[in-house]
Amino acid sequence: MDILDKLISLAQLSGKVNVKCEFGGQWAVAHSARAGQGIVHIVTQGSGYVRLANQAQSRLVKQGDILFFPRSSEHILSYASHCANCETYPTAYTQGAFEVKKIGQQADFGLFCAHFYYDPHAELIKSLPDVIFLRLEPQNFTCFVELLNQEAERELIGSSTVVNALSNVLLTLILRTYLAQSDNQPTGLLKGWQDKRLKGVLNAIMAEPEKPWLIDNMIETAHLSRSQLIRLFKQHLSVSPHVFLHRIRLQKAAMLLKQNADSVLTIALATGFQSETHFGKAFKKYYGITPSQYRKQAVSDNSK
């Protein structure tokens, strides 16, 4: 499991491709910001424009483009580059696993929308910009869209399971493509990981955060001096090595609280904490609730 696999796992990502849009004529659709959520637009037909709420200029988007808003930043999609006070409201109906949204009699712009949910503290999400624009390899894009269209047009058994699984594939492809493009400059952990001097120690910490990591272990793994290690962590991750380790331990603990029924003490020890009391205080300070409350909240969310 590489660092991207680890980050996706710790982020507790779940998602679904659950909306298909068919817009025609003069249209504009606004998307509001939503905490703990991300949204992806996959343009499958025609062209339009997107503008973020904090930007004056719109950007052309066309068939084959993918737009990923990791924090669901407020934005508007429209038929024209300048579209003041022209928001339109689509009609909606359910078709298989999708909610289909339509504007106009004949569609000249189409897209699928995927929604993602994650741990708001996730290092992965912190490392990404407000919006990512990219195009997948043509064969990957074509195959993906064909599968979605098949599920949307035919009410097949197990359709929801298929499209939800596709959403995880989609997000991984987006992140892989984004990281492979040399002109992109991630921040935080991903930026640090791209620095060869930190890559080894970050991989080691992410692989086994429960180990009794001391600064001496870290500098030995990184082949750096103490001052170099601390400086590079501050430069790329804006925190000390031990603060980073502490965050990763807590995020792994949160993941385990959701995934299995082990006792809080067992999870505390499995993630590098010396006692349940120490773990409980640290967890509440970071997440705002106790480990037990976090687990109950997760069970409640899953039952909805």
From TrEMBL:
Signal peptide stretch: none
SMART domains in alphabetical order: HTH_ARAC
UniProt superkingdom: Bacteria
Domain HTH araC/xylS-type residue range list: 199-297
Keyword rRNA-binding: no
Pfam families recorded: Cupin_6, HTH_18
InterPro entries (alphabetical): AraC_lig, AraC_XylS_family_regulators, Homeodomain-like_sf, HTH_AraC, HTH_AraC-typ_CS, Tscrpt_reg_AraC-type_HTH
Keywords: DNA-binding, Transcription, Transcription regulation
Any one GO molecular function term: DNA-binding transcription factor activity
Record-linked PANTHER family: HTH-TYPE TRANSCRIPTIONAL ACTIVATOR RHAS (PTHR46796:SF13), HTH-TYPE TRANSCRIPTIONAL ACTIVATOR RHAS-RELATED (PTHR46796)
Listed name of the protein: AraC family transcriptional regulator
Source species of the chain: Muribacter muris
